[in-house]
Amino acid sequence: MSISVKNISKLYGKQKALDNISLEVKTGEIVGLLGPNGAGKSTMMKIITCFIPPTSGDVFVNDFDIYEQAIEVRKCIGYLPENNPLYLEMYVREYLSFIAGIHKLGKKTSSQIDKMIEMCGLELEYKKKIGALSKGYRQRVGLAQALIHDPDVLILDEPTSGLDPNQLLEIRSLIKNIGKEKTIMLSTHIMQEVEAICDRAIIINNGKIVADDFTKNLSKIHSGKEIISVEFDADISENKLREIDEISSLKKVNKNTWIIETKSGKDIRSDIFEFAVKNNIKVLSMNKETKSIEEIFQQLTGK
Ligand code: ADP
Ligand code: MG
After folding, report:
1. CB 213: neighbour CB atoms within 10 A?
2. Which of 43, 205, 301 should be mutated for ligand 1, with most atoms under 8 A from CB?
3. Is pTM beyond 0.90 here?
4. pLDDT digit string (tens) for 99-151?
């Protein structure tokens, strides 16, 4: 397990920013920490990277304990903090060399810097001052500094915030590429971002986990309900339709078409079909409505 978070809580004074959170990230996974502003994403990341201690709970990164082995934890993590703090007066190469010095890369410094410049697409920019770069290129510099010591785990706090649509796509694809070789946890408040980059999403709200699932499964979360729209070839009464088990609500949208919501999330399409056969009615169309990932996010976080 690359990251193992066990029952973490964090209090800022009386305010609970994280409330008994547990999660695990497997080696090689790209996990999105998703939540509205103030959910606790940055706090979680600062704890994992040993920047601040939790109030209670345990965290292990590559089996190293954040309390007892903080230096080892930091060695195996690359961290891009929120708002990507950089020294704007430094030249790109100078800055990367400074970061390499912090990591004591020694003889490897020059070759690692060259590798980062290539990997992060900085070939045309590395002679410039960081302050002269566009936001997208500053973000690349931020990724380069996070990767320079070749860490196993990358923690990226809102890596695409404030980028224009083109830069956004470029940085997303760069992160996806890097993710082929690293374990990544990134935070965002944008659902589509998680869909575009991550294998798994952990949705947090008010310091608590409200969903943790593979991105492809997220659209199945409907607070336990399944929604089916069905068109029959005849006008059926609501009472008759209620003969089908598990229906929680029914809405007639036009003469022969109904929106059916089920109680337990059970897929009752075959029951509807059998009901039609039994009553000598034809089913002209039947669709399972999937909620957009955006709707699910709003439903889970109440924003
Ligand atoms: P996110 O990154 O999801 O936007 P944060 O982890 O930054 O959320 O913040 C979670 C909550 O903790 C917020 O309500 C925020 O105001 C509060 N908070 C964060 N950092 C501090 C701090 N250093 N002191 C006091 N409160 C803080
Ligand atoms: Mg944040």
Report:
1. 14
2. 43
3. no
4. 999 999 999 999 999 999 999 999 999 999 999 999 999 999 999 999 999 99
